[in-house]
Amino acid sequence: MTTEEKRFQEKINAIQDTMFVIGGKWKIPIILSIYSGNKRFNDISNSIPKITNRVLSKELKHLEENFLITRSIVSDYPVRIEYTVTSYGLGLDEIAKPLERWGKKHKLKIKGE
Asked: For the chain, what is the radius of gyration of the CA atoms?
């Protein structure tokens, strides 16, 4: 494998890793919901139409495992669990803006505008 091919493969692997962590239908809406101030499970669930509790639970665990959100236990009565976006998770803003711009351009292109 040439040096150029190795660099290309590394680039592909890095993009695939990124897509594994933030890809899918629900991860970005969940992160945005938490970022917007929805800290508790039911608040997050209510802010995202059509997401099931099972899927939300699974995705929250995945996002936590990848250090994009944290899960905290608040020892009130009753005990509450709250989620927050980590400083590492806030770094997604670097890639979110270009993806948003590209998505808007792509939508116009598809519509023929």
From this structure: 17
Closest to 58 (Cα-Cα) out of 98, 16, 27? 27
DSSP assignment letter at 50: T
List the CATH number of the domain containing 103: 1.10.10.10
pLDDT in tens, 16-43: 999 999 999 999 999 999 999 999 999 9
d(CA 81, CA 55): 17
State how many domains the chain has: 1
Ranges of beta strands (E only) in 14-111 are: 69-74, 80-85
Token pair 């994009």 is at which residue? 68
pTM of the entire predicted model: 0.88
Total residue length of the chain: 113
Domain enclosing residue 34, as ranges: 3-111
| Alpha-carbon distances, residue 105 vs 18, 46, 98, 112 (angstroms) | 22, 30, 11, 11
